């Protein structure tokens, strides 16, 4: 009873157990109103099963909103594998995972997330076609951080236009947390456009690489230590590393006028969206800004086409403008405006599906 209460927002939660390969995974399908569920597969050495359940429930719900905001015909899902990505991976583990995905009969598509790589899922592909974000050599689009970074740039443009009335990044300043696959590309584009950056990363080598590349670009880079990124005197904070970085402690330190980044679940809790609003900081909802990767992986299901991915990623700009204007009109936080926008989109589709239900054949097929 307790477990059903916990998954009351979700359609289905599947526990996958295969002692032979050592697979312990959980697949959560949150809502398939818009279409089959889509969401990556995270691998982490969760301390407890409870922690893994919490993560997969929260992430799969986030995917429902991300898909709705990006106007994808997909619902929200996510999966987690309990294990250490550095020690516990094997081809068998991912084949076994593929079999569980296949057992869902097209209700769930998955692929790379934190702790897993596209190459891991080449093994799963032997058992199921319902894998997306696959390497180019296997007919997929390859690295999803390219459109994700493009989406962040569109998010920054829409936000700069709203706050400063310009989309020109020259002489603007940005505090970038995390120079990984997405953050590095965003940083490089901003430097090319003549922006001034404050950057931090726990990995010294990526910082060195950016500083080297910056020598030949118009913009400037200042490296800051760890938590100093929150109080950097920049125009925009660009979180591209961990989730939960906007919390009661860090929010007090921010000197920026806007927050726009790729990290998932940037706000520790939604109520922090109201505090950002009160403090005059414009927040670009993360699941709108970072949808470029989702757009690219979903595109693989319709024969990969990079031009189409770019076109759909561009729409992130228009969606944000719409959310900002709606939030202004209603005096809402952008988080609330964005959630309302997605809930309405899902509700509308429910009505449309039931309107056309006459064409859906009865499921009880007696022969
Ligand atoms: N790659 C993609 O297509 C998408 C990524 N995202 C999200 O964007 C964020 C970045 O993703 P990627 O660049 O792909 O990951 P990544 O793993 O390549 O990069 C993350 C970077 O953050 C750094 N980092 C970790 N902890 C840090 C800390 N405490 N302070 C400063 N830097 C720290 C890491 O050293 C690494 O360089 C993640 O939250 C991810 O979930 C969201 C949607 C799509
Ligand atoms: O954007 C995300 O957070 C995703 O999980 C996207 C995704 C969806 C399906 C496979 C891989 C990544």
Automatic annotation (TrEMBL):
Task: Tell me which domain of life the UniProt entry assigns to the organism this sequence originates from.
Answer: Bacteria
A GO BP term here is: amino acid metabolic process
Xref: Pfam families: ELFV_dehydrog, ELFV_dehydrog_N
Q: Which residues form the active site?
A: 78
Keyword annotations of the record = NAD, Nucleotide-binding, Oxidoreductase
Query: What does the sequence similarity comment in the record state about its family?
Result: Belongs to the Glu/Leu/Phe/Val dehydrogenases family.
Name the record gives this protein: Phenylalanine dehydrogenase
Q: Which organism is it from?
A: Scopulibacillus darangshiensis
What lineage does UniProt assign to this protein's organism? Bacteria, Bacillati, Bacillota, Bacilli, Bacillales
């Amino acid at each position: 009873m307790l477990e059903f209460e916990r998954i009351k927002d979700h359609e289905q939660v599947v526990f996958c157990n295969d002692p032979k390969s050592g697979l312990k995974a959980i697949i959560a399908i949150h809502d398939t109103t818009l279409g089959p569920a889509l969401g990556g597969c995270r691998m982490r050495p969760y301390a407890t099963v409870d922690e893994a359940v919490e993560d997969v429930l929260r992430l799969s719900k986030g995917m429902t909103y991300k898909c709705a905001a990006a106007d994808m015909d997909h619902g929200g899902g996510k999966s987690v594998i309990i294990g250490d990505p550095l020690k516990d991976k094997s081809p068998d583990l991912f084949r076994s995972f593929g079999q569980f995905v296949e057992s869902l009969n097209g209700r769930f598509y998955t692929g790379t997330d934190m702790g897993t790589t596209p190459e891991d899922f080449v093994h799963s592909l032997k058992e199921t076609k319902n894998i997306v974000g696959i390497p180019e050599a296997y007919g997929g689009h390859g690295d999803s951080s390219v459109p994700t970074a493009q989406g962040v740039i569109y998010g920054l443009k829409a936000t700069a236009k709203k706050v400063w009335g310009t989309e020109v990044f020259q002489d603007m300043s940005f505090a970038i947390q995390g120079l990984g696959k997405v953050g590095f590309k965003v940083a490089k584009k901003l430097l090319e456009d003549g922006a001034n950056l404050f950057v931090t990363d726990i990995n010294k080598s990526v910082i060195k690489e950016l500083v080297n590349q910056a020598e030949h670009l118009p913009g400037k880079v200042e490296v800051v230590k760890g938590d100093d990124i929150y109080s950097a005197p920049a125009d925009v904070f660009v979180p591209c590393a961990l989730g939960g970085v906007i919390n009661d402690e860090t929010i007090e330190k921010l000197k920026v006028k806007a927050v726009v980044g790729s990290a998932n679940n940037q706000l520790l809790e939604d109520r922090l969206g109201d505090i950002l609003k009160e403090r005059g900081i414009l927040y670009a909802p993360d699941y709108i800004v970072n949808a470029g990767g989702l757009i690219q992986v979903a595109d693989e299901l319709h024969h990969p086409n990079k031009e189409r991915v770019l076109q759909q990623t561009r729409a992130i700009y228009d969606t944000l403008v719409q959310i900002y204007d709606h939030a202004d009109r209603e005096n809402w936080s952008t988080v609330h405006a964005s959630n309302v926008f997605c809930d309405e989109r899902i509700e509308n589709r429910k009505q449309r599906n039931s309107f056309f239900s006459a064409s859906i054949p009865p499921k009880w097929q007696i022969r």
